[in-house]
Specification:
mainly alpha, coiled coil
Length: 115
């Protein structure tokens, strides 16, 4: 429970105490009743506002978690593509080396054929 929640609970407790006091005297003055009703409506409005704010924060948290999960997936895909690109590059280098060796061997063979 945070500080604001405690303030609102204290305020509600104060109103309950007032209501009990009025009930004990068995005399309810319309002005007191109206004041209590107004305070109760204000407290309810503040609680509703805090609940909406908390829902907004919960939505922000959920959206942030979704973005994190999305970014993690993108990173995994990049890593997979990087590994594939790395393998393709290694294969291409290997092929070039083989072709270079074959070319050199062919040149050497052809130079021996003239003698």
């Amino acid at each position: 429970m945070n500080h604001l929640d405690e303030l609102f609970l204290d305020r509600i407790k104060h109103m309950e105490d007032k209501i009990e006091g009025i009930g004990n005297d068995r005399v309810i003055i319309q002005q007191d009743f109206n004041n209590l009703e107004t305070e109760l409506q204000e407290a309810r409005a503040q609680i509703a506002k805090l609940q909406r704010k908390q829902m907004g924060n919960n939505n922000k948290i959920a959206l942030t978690r979704f973005r994190i999960a999305d970014l993690e997936q993108i990173i995994k895909e990049i890593q997979v593509h990087h590994q594939a690109d790395k393998k393709n590059l290694q294969d291409a280098i290997y092929e070039l080396k083989i072709n270079k060796e074959e070319h050199r061997t062919t040149r050497l063979d052809s130079s021996y054929s003239y003698y």
